[in-house]
């Protein structure tokens, strides 16, 4: 019988979620322990954090790391660089557990269908274009607009999952969600602008 393939993403989530450090895990510890596909894990973590039920407006600050990751990817870096003060920042075990529980309903079904495929998406110009799209998606995440947090956060998480698993089809799904998030924010911004003009006339 062929052994069942286990998702590297789920293994990574479980590994970090079971850490016994009293103060939780630092961002640097997490990225180091989760392997060498650092841009994918940067997106997974950025998406997870912004999918938490946090106070309105939190995404304006918590979305900035995703912008930082996407800019480096678009710039063509081979690995993710983080400054010391970010690597040292601690994520409490309770917060990580909540984020992981939020992500599992998405990660579990995706893990059953992920395969290494369409690897051309992870090379050279294709990867840089992908980084550029997610610079826009991450900037969309930090906009102070209604509905501007969840959809781009999901897009960032899904594309990160595809990068970690080297599954180009999952990355394409993340891109579709990313384009939808940009369209949605443009529609919300247009509605607010038209509504404001109507009120002042």
Key attributes of the depicted protein:
2 strands, two-stranded antiparallel sheet, single chain, mainly alpha, globular
Protein described:
With 201 residues, the protein is mainly alpha-helical. The chain has one domain. 69% of the residues lie in helices and 2% in strands. It has ten helices and two strands; from the N terminus they run αβαααααβαααα. The protein has helices at residues 8-17, 27-33, 38-50, 59-62, 64-75, 84-87, 93-113, 124-141, 150-165, 168-200, and strands at residues 25-26, 90-91. The chain has a two-stranded antiparallel ribbon. Helix 3 runs antiparallel to helix 9 (150-165). The longest helix is centred in the last third of the chain and has 33 residues, at 168-200. The termini are far apart. The mean pLDDT is 76.
Biggest sheet: strands side by side, in what order?
Answer: 1-2
Query: Which structural class matches the secondary elements?
Result: mainly alpha
Main sheet attributes: strand count, strand direction, barrel closure: 2 strands, antiparallel
- H/E series: HEHHHHHEHHHH
Number of helical stretches of at least 4 residues? 10
Distance between the termini: 72 Å
Low-pLDDT residue intervals, each spanning 5 or more residues: none
Q: Whole-number radius of gyration?
A: 17 Å
